[in-house]
Specification:
Elements lengths: L10 E2 L6 E2 L6 E3 L4 E3 L3 E4 L2 E4 L6 E2 L6 E2 L2
Antiparallel strand pairs: 1-2, 3-4, 5-6, 7-8
Length: about 70
Amino acid sequence: DDVCTCPEGMTLDKEGASCLCPDGLDYTDDKLGCTCPWGMTPTGDGRNCTCPEGYVPSPDGQSCICP
C-alpha cells in the first residue's frame, strides 16, 4: 500500500491515508462539520476541500486523501 508523503509541517494520520495540519492550523467550518487543512472551494452542492498538489478530495469532499 502506498503511504502519503505529507507537505512540510504536516503529520500523517494513523491510517497513513491523509495528512493533518499542526494543531491550530486546520480550516474548520463548524456549519459543515468540515475540517480541511487547505481551505474550501465552492461547489454545486456546498463546499469541498481544496487539496494540495498530489492529493484528491475524499468521496465526501471533507478531507484530502492520496489518489
